[in-house]
Fold:
Amino acid sequence: MTELLDFLSRSPSRYHAAANLAEELERNGYTRLYEGADWALAPGGRYYVTRNGSALAAFRIPGGDFSGFMISASHSDAPCLRVKENAELAGPESYVRLNVEKYGGMLCAPWMDRPLTVAGRVLVQTADGVETRLVYVDRDLLLIPSVAIHMNRKANDGYSYDPKTDMVPLMGLGLEKGSFRAIVAQAAGCEAGDILGTDLFLCLRQKPLVWGANGEFVSAAGLDDLQCAYGCFKGFMEAKESSREKIAPIAAAISMAKSSKPCRVIQSPVAFAVSKTAVPCMVRTKRTPMKAPKIMIPSNARLMIPLRSANTPARATIIRGTA
Structure:
């Protein structure tokens, strides 16, 4: 539990989560692969690949012949409020607020009246070119205030939140224009003018905690997604040797939709590209009759991870096949 809470605390954004998992893989002897380069895979090798800095896929190659695949996957993002580019809103009067938008099917009420900050990544212009840097503003920077009951008599009657008015975080009073960009630049270790773009999200300042009469509950921001990502990751890393005759890919990818439609992993930056040396195989579901169409994967193609999407079953069995 301590390891999970530490991971949650160090992962205020999807980019931090992917970076933390990659760092752990590096410490355990995994080699990073790059999609634009040739992959020299070896028996017994351990590898991982990232995309967009927000998604990660790792896999092991058995030392000899293998009997199939063991696949686990999760998503690394969570419903939240995303900070728009050039986010400062001046007014009313001397108030300075941030322009945000909903990301995913989020609950609005839990974001009210709590210390908040921002986390994510920025693109920075350096002498050596454009560089991506992770950012976490480690201070109580923002708050989304609710109004007093006499200003909203329907607050306890199933209130419908308008993100453009009710969910706008307050940052300060009488601030100079560009103050938010300056704060982000300080956290990124650069000048405000060197920031070319941002991808930032609001996050809670409260640390993950264990509570209850006997410590039986856990509360944390992003618990619904990152506990799955970390659970899959720990299972992948601690798999017994007897199970390693199987190719074992794991993926942590962003998959949250920006609407009320069901989330689809197909929107993720990682929905494939685990192995360039996959043998021909076919995929069928346990619930699908054998007469149903089978997916054939050529020997020279990358292995397609059967993640959930509009056209891909949630549960699938990988079967050895012939070309």
